[in-house]
Design a protein that fits this description.
Helices cover 82% and strands 0% of the residues. With 169 residues, the chain is an all-alpha fold. It has one domain (21-164). It is globular, with a radius of gyration of 17 Å.
């Protein structure tokens, strides 16, 4: 139970810091946070609350926007992906899910932008909306790969060291 508290506290601090500190566009730990929340935190409702808390607390400071159902919903999808498919200790699983989560975030949130009518409610408008978002996507992917790698390293090495020390005492 104590370990879960520290996992939740750490994820909240990393997520909030990653959104509030200066960073390139979309280069944040949020995709990794959602994936690892789903994989590490039990029960499911608690895993879902972690990214939602980060989004809510930081949106209060950064300003609310009309896309919040899409951005928050994308984080919930990440929790469910992590719960179902993130294999403990597997770098490939973490990297693959980080890429998948980035792509899903891109598709979901830009669909939300298109629904606001900026590009017209046509297939061409939808494609134009996605095309306009491509310059931000590479930062999203780099952020997801960076932070899922960090999450994997924490899981693989730091948590293993902590478990050994706890069992030895």
């Amino acid at each position: 139970m104590r370990g879960q508290f520290w996992a939740i506290a750490g994820l909240l601090l990393i997520g909030m810091g990653g959104r509030l500190l200066p960073h390139p566009p979309n280069f944040t730990p949020l995709e990794a946070l959602a994936l690892f929340s789903g994989a590490w935190i039990r029960p499911l409702w608690a895993a879902l609350v972690v990214p939602l808390s980060v989004m809510a607390l930081t949106d209060v400071l950064l300003g609310w926007h009309p896309l919040w159902p899409f951005t928050w919903g994308s984080m919930l999808v990440g929790v469910l992906l992590g719960r179902r498919w993130l294999k403990p200790g597997s770098w490939r699983s973490a990297a693959g899910l980080g890429l998948s989560q980035s792509l899903l975030f891109f598709l979901i949130t830009n669909f939300g932008v298109w629904l606001q009518g900026y590009y017209g409610y046509t297939a061409a408008g939808l494609m134009a909306c996605y095309a306009a978002a491509i310059p931000f996507f590479h930062y999203q992917v780099l952020g997801a790969l960076t932070y899922t790698t960090i999450g994997w390293l924490v899981e693989r090495y730091l948590l293993a060291i902590w478990r050994v020390r706890v069992s030895a005492s």
